[in-house]
Amino acid sequence: MMNAPTVPVSDDELHAFVDGQLDDERLAAVLQWLQAHPDAATRVAQWQTQRQQLRRLARSLPMSKSPPILAERVLRSAGRARRRAGWQQTAAAGLLLAIGVGAGHWCGAAGPAHQPLAASPAFVRDAVLAHAVFVPEKRHPVEVAAADQAHLVQWLSKRLGVPLKAPLLEDRGYRLLGGRLLPGEDKPRAQFMYENGEGRRITLYVTVFSTADAPGETSFRSLRDGERESFYWVEDRFGYALSGELSASDLQLVAREVHAQLTR
């Protein structure tokens, strides 16, 4: 496990982390600190859930119940935020599409270039946080164990509203531990966790976009945060993020197998 940063992380920075307001350098330090402080990581995950619930509640309230001047300012601010988010998403999509070769998913032998975590899609940042929170867990790393795999897949499929698969990675040295349901922006997300004979764990995070909000398919993209590597991609209405404390080449081999099974 990585050493925690020498500079303490304040609650203000943790709130900024949840709100996506940290620069890339500090974002990496906060993630490293959260990995070394599981209690704080759990608290941050709870804040993130509350934030998503509040945003869903806010969208359900009619603007007519707000004072006109406040409603006008909120709408103006929301418009600026959407324009900023749209520019960032367009830039990220351009980068993702620019590196696609071959079948449109895999890059050359050197693998995809690393992308800063702050520039990655929101679901990828959620996946990295979920990995950091639950991988260190000893007693409760998953909600439903692999011994009840059929129920696990059926349950997560029902909650996400689409049929899901739990890839089998024994040939790569990883057995399925189980999975859990996680909160998402508009829909729940799923996390599958795997472990090898050395106790090293990897997670596959799955999000399902609505038909209206589904981004275009992307080639694989990778990011590195300290010792943690993540590969992510979007296909059909699904967003996937595979994370683990592995080298890029080792995790890419696992990601190839995951992709092959998901598209088989």
Uncertain runs are 1-5, 63-75, 82-110
Average pLDDT, all residues: 76
Q: How many helices in DSSP terms?
A: 7
| Count of beta strands | 7
Structural class: alpha+beta
Strand-residue proportion: 15-25%
Order of helices and strands: HHHHHEHEEEEEEH
Helicity range of the residues? 40-55%
Q: How many angstroms does the end-to-end distance come to?
A: 35 Å
Strand order of the largest sheet: 1-2-3-4-7-6-5
Structure description:
The chain is an alpha+beta fold. It is built from 7 helices and 7 strands, in the order H-H-H-H-H-E-H-E-E-E-E-E-E-H. The chain has helices spanning 11-18, 24-36, 38-60, 68-98, 122-134, 149-160, 248-263, and strands at 144-145, 174-182, 189-196, 201-208, 221-225, 228-235, 238-244. The protein has a 7-stranded antiparallel beta sheet, with helices on both faces. A hairpin with a 6-residue loop joins strand 2 (174-182) and strand 3 (189-196). The protein starts with 10 loop residues before the first helix and ends with a helix.
